[in-house]
């Protein structure tokens, strides 16, 4: 197994344990992260996001497979199952991840998932009816960014 594939496995094993510190240790200091909810995070923001998500996760489980990597790029598929705290609804989010590596660390991490499908699960009927609209998706992004800023401000170690 390529060392970068091992790094991806270590990342997701830490995620399964909800160990945000070990997850962040897999990243370069100047990590770039994006997904449909957090489209442009950089550096310490990325570790803070994982810290926030893992510390708040309820009824959480994670599985991953399809890990593959070479010297510069990698990928994995993962599924997060959890209770969305704002509505109490269960979400099963299927994600495709792409990675880029530099000096034995992940320097770019892009997660791809269907935000409308997530909205339908997390928000119920309102998500089903309105979750595909850019205005609703932008509101979700804004709330997530505000939540991350508030969480980061409350954590002296981040």
Automatic annotation (TrEMBL):
- Return the Pfam families for the record: SnoaL_2
* SnoaL-like domain location: 8-109
Source organism, top-level taxon: Bacteria
The record, for InterPro entries, names: NTF2-like_dom_sf, SnoaL-like
The protein depicted here goes by the name Nuclear transport factor 2 family protein
Q: What is the lineage of its organism?
A: Bacteria, Pseudomonadati, Pseudomonadota, Betaproteobacteria, Burkholderiales
